[in-house]
Amino acid sequence: MIIFKSINNLKKKVNFSKNIGFVPTMGAIHEGHLSLINQSKKKCDKTVVSIFINPKQFNNKLDFKNYPRNLNKDIKLLKKNKVDYLLLPKYDELFRVNLRKKIRLKNKDRILCAKYRPGHFEGVLHVINQYLNLIQPKFIFLGEKDYQQYHLISNFIKDKFITRAYLCKTIRQNNLYALSSRNKLLKNKDLHILKSVTMIIKKFYFSLKKEKKNVKNLGHTKMLLEKTGINLEYLEIRNKINFSKKISKGNFKIFIAYYFKNIRFIDNF
């Protein structure tokens, strides 16, 4: 694995006109990230992984400060998984160029996490825009756990870049809670709460798959979730194509965000 600390150096050494896959991360690499990397390795000739903790996508300074960091461990994992190139860009490389037109979400997109984390997705899209402007990979690999993020990125890049977004399924612990870098901030004894939350959401999801009218149980599901001890931020059912509230039995997703131990978690089914 070759490590680059400059995007310009990466561009000089890597031929991005070839079949290159790109996996952007904020580090704290886990099996979820590795599944994206494996998809890239299957689909592409070479894979670039980036690690950059983007301060612009945190609307809480404490959340940014506490975000798990372990670069040495990340490098060992990426080498073990035979990643071709690791990019560790500097802040100035991604933010020194002012965009002619500031990225803003459309009003219809200010829902779910965009509603509760103002500026978050603008920060994400700014960095993705800079990455793709500079390196132009063939594919960018994104996880389904961050489905709203995937939806916004894929729409944002669709007519602007040659790069195409590739969605990879959520990796779960024992088929229950989603793997996340933030899970590392919890003690093992507290992970059972994430398990309980996931079991409640899964049960609700399958009841909706069986019969759409079970949407009436949304309020009861919220009550069950709050009994687990979490602080529920939102629980919503959305059309998985256009994110409207018009759903059919086979065309919906349940989205949840909640706090536990002052740590924010998201998931969807």
Describe the fold and architecture:
The protein is an alpha/beta fold. The chain folds into two domains: 2-168, HUPs (Rossmann fold); 173-268, Pantoate--beta-alanine Ligase, Chain: A,domain 2, CATH 3.30.1300. 38% of the residues lie in helices and 19% in strands. β2 (20-25), α2 (31-43) and β3 form a beta-alpha-beta unit. α7 crosses α8 (147-157). The two termini are 35 Å apart.
How would you summarize the topology of this molecule?
Layout: E1 2-4, H1 7-13, E2 20-25, H2 31-43, E3 46-51, H3 61-66, H4 71-80, E4 85-87, H5 91-95, H6 113-116, H7 120-135, E5 139-143, H8 147-157, E6 164-168, H9 191-210, H10 218-227, E7 231-238, E8 253-260, E9 263-268
Parallel strand pairs: 1-4, 2-3, 2-5, 3-4, 5-6
Antiparallel strand pairs: 7-8, 8-9
Helix pairs in contact: 7-8, 9-10
Provide the gyration radius in Å.
Answer: 19 Å
Helix content: 25-40%
Q: Report the order of strands and helices.
A: EHEHEHHEHHHEHEHHEEE
Kindly report the spatial arrangement of strands forming the biggest sheet: 1-4-3-2-5-6
Total count of domains: 2
CATH architecture designation of the largest domain:
3-Layer(aba) Sandwich
The shape, in one word, is: globular
List segments where confidence is low: pLDDT < 50 over at least 5 consecutive residues: none
- Tell me about the largest β-sheet: 6 strands, parallel
